[in-house]
Amino acid sequence: MKINVISMLGATLFAAQSFASIPDTASVVRSGFSVAEKQYSYMLNEVTDLSRYPRSADPNGKTSFTGIGDWTGGFWPGCLWYVYEYTKGEKWKEAATRWTESLDKNQYNTAHHDIGFMMNCSYGNAYRLTGNEAYRKVLVQSAKSLMTRFNPTVGAIKSWNSFSSWSGKAVYDYPVIIDNMMNLELLFLASKLSGDQSFRNVAIRHAETTLKNHYRPDYSSYHVVNYDTRTGKVLSKETAQGFSDNSAWSRGQAWGLYGFTSVYRETRQKRFLTAAIKMAEYFVNNKNLPADKIPYWDFNVNQEGYKPNWKYDPARFKEIPRDASAAAITSSALLELSGYVSGARKKLFVSTAKEILSSLSSAAYTAQAGTNGYFILKHSVGSIPHNGEIDVPLVYADYYYLESLLRLQHMEMKDKI
Ligand code: GLY
Fold it and tell me: Which of 60, 73, 87, 130 has the greatest number of CB atoms lying within 10 Å of its CB?
């Protein structure tokens, strides 16, 4: 463990004892990865079919799966890469490689925008940690596939092929969802790997369009914005997975915060930093954020002025479900963003991320080994309006949780050097 931490930072002179002198952070990181090793060892023993990607758990606690075309396929190899990064164990590298390479044909997938999630979380981490040249080509081809969905008149990448309003009033053929901000990292990476600036230019254009059309003055976000491809005009602003069209769906808030933070990292343009800060402040100062900092699945559930267009039965939920996945994504984003700000703001972003991670690593959210479909975190929400994956583990909650723990560890180590 000492050696792993040191080699990750390339700081061979650093004494590992000083890390151990930050008990809170050290124990949160250590216990998170210890649970990950236990749970994922069970998973690897039981799950051997490389065409079935672990995603969640059924009501009996058995792992449930998706196929190669689903948006979540890259997270399981990504989780394995993070465990490898922490442990340097060959077992994890071998498994991560096997699962990553099973996604090979997705580099040609142009069916939706999610190729960024699928390929950057798998091949992106694989390339970062191994430098394998073959992965570079896969990443550049994946970015080319994503580029096929960009329309210069709209100035954004098309997310889904169509979107039907919950109100039943319309079906749209150019929906862009806030989640799409997460696919831009693949484009920035492809420019760096290929020298071709067009990937990066499209990413910046998409971010500009999203900032202009997806955000309200308080920096809460619409989930879906539908465009007219002939004029580039906005046709409607709605929700698919949130409480109501005008509400703040928690995972959407998290995707936006994370996405704009990474666009700032790649561009150093102040407007993106300012936006990311406002998004972070929406979260950290929100009066509807519970004390343990794990958000409800939407910030505006049951509030006056927010009316669902889908079939909502408030009596079904004694308590408003939380979304651990939104919390994990947010903590990872806050940790990165804290590196771009200073003073009280930096302190607040770091302390909120730590509070999130401390809640997630408690028994309230972390599963007992051998349960929870072999995932780490409990209590995430896929989509309540679609009546799917309510209060369950989700592979992407684990992925961003492990990423946050690594970011926290790197940050604390850097501060000590
Ligand atoms: N991108 C889909 C989701 O966040 O549920």
Answer: 73
pTM, two decimals, is: 0.94
Residue 6 forms part of a structural domain: no
CA-based max dimension of the chain: 64
What's the pLDDT tens digit per position in 139-182? Answer: 999 999 999 999 999 999 999 999 999 999 899 999 999 999 99
Is 10 within a domain?
no
pLDDT-based confidence at 417, cuts 50/70/90? low
Question: The domain spanning residue 143 has which CATH number?
Answer: 1.50.10.10
- The closest alpha carbon to 356, from 375, 372, 373, 334, belongs to 334
196 noted as active-site residue: no
What value does the CA radius of gyration of the chain take, rounded to a whole number of Å? 20
Domain count along the chain: 1
Whether 68 and 103 have beta carbons less than 8 Å apart is answered as yes
SS3 347: helix
What is the best residue among 56, 66, 70, 71 to mutate for testing ligand 1's pocket, by most ligand atoms within 8 Å of CB? 71
- Does any domain span residue 5? no
Q: What is the pLDDT of residue 12?
A: 27
**What pLDDT was estimated at residue 19?**
36
Closest to 334 (Cα-Cα) out of 395, 414, 275, 261: 261
Q: Which of 49, 104, 179, 245 is catalytic?
A: 179
d(CA 397, CA 132): 27
Neighbour tally for 26: CB within 10 Å: 17
pLDDT tens digits, 361-391: 999 999 999 999 999 999 999 999 999 999 9
In order of 184, 192, 201, 227, the CA distances from 153 in angstroms are 18, 26, 14, 10
What distance in angstroms lies between residue 179's CA and the mean position of ligand 1's atoms?
Answer: 6
Bridge partners (DSSP) listed for residue 224: 177, 238
Residue numbers of the domain that contains 282:
19-416
| DSSP reduced 3-state for 337 | helix
